[in-house]
Amino acid sequence: MAEVEETLKRIQSHKGVLGTIVVNAEGIPIRTTLDNSTTVQYAGLLHQLTIKARSTVRDIDPQNDLTFLRIRSKKHEIMVAPDKEYLLIVIQNPSE
Amino acid sequence: MEITYVYTKKRSEFGSQCNFTDRPVELLVDILPDPTVAASFIQRDLCNMPVQCVQQMSEHEINTERLETETEGVNHVEGGWPKDVNPQEQEQTTRFRKKVEKEESYIASLTILGSLMEHCIKQNNAINIYEEYYEEEEEVQESTEEPPTAKTLHVLKDPNDIKRTATSLSWHPDGGRKLAVSYCCLEFQRASKDMSFHSYIWNLEKPNKPQMTLKPSSPIVCLDYNPKDFHVLAGGCYNGQVAYWDTRKGSQPVEMSIIEQSHRDPVYKVIWLQSKTGTDCFSASTDGQVLWWDIRKLSEPTERLILDISKKGTLDGAAGATSLEFETTMPTKFMVGTENGMVIACNRKGKTPAEKISSTFCGHHGPVYALRRNPFYPKNFLSVADWIARIWSEDTKESSIMWTRYHMARLSDGCWSPTRPSVFFTTKMDGTLDVWDLLLKQKEPTLSVKVCDEALYSLRVQDNGHILACGSQLGTATLLEISSGLCSLQRNEKALANEMFERESKREKILEARRRELRLKERGRSDQGKEEEPKEAEPQESTEDLVARAEKEFFQAIESERKKREQEQQKLQTPISTVKVEEAGKLVS
């Protein structure tokens, strides 16, 4: 329990990190550092996108699986680390 | 039953193969040519006949029915929560979350995911993998030699059954996503009783139906959006009244001017003025008056000007105005185009009506339908009338500095491009839109697009110079997008355009000076002549003789032009040898 806290805190303290969200398999945000409406939006949208990305990867090669998803936009980068049951989303502003 | 015929065949011969035998050649028919028949036939000239043995195919065109689309928003609500948790209740949600956090699988997966994520974060911080190299270098000028094109974006059709002319268009000043179009039947007494008076504001994202209707008591002839307050529109009506609408307040005009104080003829142009309050506008009509209004008090105009060149101040000799021009960078001056082809430049600051009219520019043969100043060089302005478009410079009053050739159809409206100083657009009564680029070609339009079969009556360019709207006689407003070459500023264009305008105005000034000299010389000579010889009674040509002479000259000019055209046509058709003979013949005669 304490390690989880420590990990999340460490991630949040990195340079350029704007927010961290932990989402479960149903798309419910478990842990977040952003406000509720933004969190809900990110959680819902990225959850669906991750499922789609994973299915794409597996369609191309069934032995393959999605390990990481990075979306780079003009303003920042959204990084999604998927797991069987949970999703860790971090929004970072990469270049200063 | 009688047996009529018996066919017999041996059983063993059934199914046996055919035995073929050879036979010597036998002539069956021999038809000899009959020379007597040839008399009833004529030999034809040799001609080329193409023959193709191919599948017969036919081409069909189908146009599907218009699909009506609507843009709507969707409201999402939070979901995904298990049935027993109410997402609105904070307690329940926090309890659920805490429960999840205590699970074993959560801790395990988070640790793994955390380390994975940290790796990527550190990667991002270490090096910017999407760095833009060579950002300082300006993008190479894409001198794509693509020919200028115009594409139709939308066609906004008048929803009423009885079609009226789209007489004027006005873009919404903020972004140009909305277009206000006024509809009115301009033909004298042709308007039927069932014709609707409504004009519409269209939203370009929903081009199937107008967004808002404006309901005046008389059809609107011209509309203008207030550049300062985007919700207010001023309109001039067919019966001479001026009204203003506020789109927040509904379709009825907020206020209309009193009939007794308004114009006596349809108001052809209404323009907002630059003022501190943003409520001033002025209107012009063919009754010869230009009236200034403050929309807060439309019961009477704040100022009145009668366009009388002889400065008598009565309406009898006044010239009817068909267009107005006002540029916010020159708030004290404005220009009026009249029905008899004159452009009058006026000064607002004049105290008496005589002082108001500062100068006139003559040169057109018909009513001036559009007057616009060049947005980059306001001293030059464009006037569109009868069959020609002219560009004038304020300094040369005798004639225009540049003009297009005379067209086959009358021109109805014109305007400059707001992004390029040397590009302007004109619309014609045969439904074509011409784009003129003065730096490229001056004799012909750079691009000529046939927008529709009926006449085009009005034209407006959006502020970005990219999209333009033209209104036609049957009430359809077509939105066209022109290629980027015609709306993006080229290198040195401003300098070149400036040079061109200056050069042309200098040329005109020189010509003007020369003409003045000649006139003075003539006068001097005629004065001298009068002193030396006794006054010979010059046969005064009566007006009928003058008319007859003018007619004769006119017909002569037309005949010679027609002959020239026929000769050119013949030249194209006959082979070269006869052309030479003709040319020699011409030289001889």
Automatic annotation (TrEMBL), chain A:
GO terms for biological process: microtubule-based movement. Belongs to the GAMAD family. One of its GO terms (molecular function) is dynein intermediate chain binding. This is Dynein light chain roadblock. It comes from the Eukaryota. InterPro entries: DYNLRB1/2, Roadblock/LAMTOR2_dom. Keywords: Cytoplasm, Cytoskeleton, Dynein, Microtubule, Motor protein, Transport. Acts as one of several non-catalytic accessory components of the cytoplasmic dynein 1 complex that are thought to be involved in linking dynein to cargos and to adapter proteins that regulate dynein function. Cytoplasmic dynein 1 acts as a motor for the intracellular retrograde motility of vesicles and organelles along microtubules. Its main location: cytoplasm. The gene is dynlrb2. Residues 4-92 form the Roadblock/LAMTOR2 domain. One of its GO terms (cellular component) is cytoplasmic dynein complex. PANTHER family: DYNEIN LIGHT CHAIN ROADBLOCK. It is found in: Cytoplasm, Cytoskeleton. Gene3D superfamilies: Dynein light chain 2a, cytoplasmic.
